[in-house]
Amino acid sequence: MQQKINVTEFVLLGLTQDPLRQKMVFLIFLIFYMGTVVGNMLIIVTIKCSRTLGSPMYFFLFYLSFADSCFSTSTAPRLIVDALSAKKVISYNECMTQVFALHLFGCMEIFVLILMAADRYVAICKPLHYPRIMRRQVCHILIVLAWIGSFIHSIAQIILALRLPFCGPNLIDHYCCDLQPLLKLACMDTYMINLLLVTNSGAICSSSFVILMISYVVILHSLRNHSAEGRKKALSTCTSHIIVVVLFFGPCIFIYTRPPTTFPMDKMVAVFYTIGTPFLNPLIYTLRNAEVKNAMRKLWHVKTASENKA
């Protein structure tokens, strides 16, 4: 029998209660969020408009940038607004929606990173079969499967969240709604739900990280048979991917693969993978990728030339 939910809204305590620090939080994360959206949208537009970035690697990068933008949007705007709000209230329905969005786009980012690693593995280890294996139709099917998998994961998370009865208090010691802080407020024994959470989110993070690391070890090992120029180009691409993987999965594994205990650094760790990593990804992929930078320059020159003619 489903228990009645007495709590209809929650209060997010945010990152700090100090007024001066709240203003600093507002300014810093406003800059981070604007940088995230602008950077990822720039990559999306460049890949969409450029004829030279039509390979599967950039097809997957397009969806990684989209997932990054949505993932950051699921948490950053509320953190920014709440930094200047006297009462940081979020309704029960808004809280559940945030849990769903956070896990949908976070899981999508994980699956896209795996697809990007698979693409690099085929390109480097099976170059003769690459055009046949990574056809555009196959890439579309893989992305659809990634969306379906992310949706299933998010549905599982929201089902766990909806089963939690809340009868007070309603203070969430976090800047967003997620299952870990909500478990602390539930009026029930949450051991089994936390076990399911670790089995679900924790297993996805840990197994995906292991798969990605193994794939890149295999890729890097196979590079010994390539030419010096080929090794340099492949190493540049793989290094970017490895940096993104470590930055994203390190905090995720720390948060989702442990018993129901909280640490003072939990909120800052969560900030790093929900806001920090989406901000860094465009910088990593543009600063270390000559093809993306060249495509951006060409599009800029075309736009400037068309404006001058007008």
TrEMBL record:
Origin: domain of life: Eukaryota
- Predominant subcellular localization, coarse grouping: membrane
**Annotated ranges, domain G-protein coupled receptors family 1 profile:** 39-285
InterPro entries membership: GPCR_Rhodpsn, GPCR_Rhodpsn_7TM, Olfact_rcpt, Olfactory_Receptors
Residue intervals passing through the bilayer: 24-45, 57-80, 100-118, 138-162, 201-223, 235-256, 268-287
Compartments (UniProt record): Cell membrane
User: How does this protein sit in the membrane?
Assistant: Multi-pass membrane protein
Q: Which CDD domains match?
A: 7tmA_OR4A-like
One GO cellular component this record assigns the protein to is: plasma membrane
- Give the molecular function GO annotations: G protein-coupled receptor activity; olfactory receptor activity
Per UniProt, what is one Pfam family of this protein? 7tm_4
Keywords per UniProt: Cell membrane, G-protein coupled receptor, Membrane, Olfaction, Receptor, Sensory transduction, Transducer, Transmembrane, Transmembrane helix
Q: Which PANTHER family match?
A: OLFACTORY RECEPTOR (PTHR48002)
Q: Which family is this sequence assigned to?
A: Belongs to the G-protein coupled receptor 1 family.
Protein name (database record):
Olfactory receptor
Native source species: Ictidomys tridecemlineatus
Taxonomic lineage of the native organism: Eukaryota, Metazoa, Chordata, Craniata, Vertebrata
| Gene behind this protein | LOC101966140
